[in-house]
Amino acid sequence: xxxxxxxxxxxKTDYLHCxxxxxxxxxxxxxxxxxxxxxxxxxxxxxxxIKQNGDINKDINQRIKVGWQKWKYSSGVLCNKRVPLRLKGxxxxxxxxxxxxxxxxx
Length: 106
What we know:
Blueprint: E1 15-16, E2 31-32, E3 35-36, E4 39-40, E5 42-45, E6 48-51, H1 57-78, H2 85-101
Parallel strand pairs: 1-4
Antiparallel strand pairs: 2-3, 5-6
Helix pairs in contact: 1-2
């Protein structure tokens, strides 16, 4: 039988049990081929920091930081008086705004 291409790394795998309702964790152990998988209280997934208790402060701070970094990298163009306003708008729309707004739609 041909493999579907999905491979799971035992050494890099961990899991997060989300408790958004405020209930305490129910005991239990997650195992893979007899090995216990470590449990974490937060991890990064698709540029978002997901926490066990649903706290989003670190994720918001990370988004603000990335937005300022993009602004800093683009400021040479955005603050240059010789660059046409239309080009500045394009740089802002293509680089800065997506970095700040990524994942905010919902």
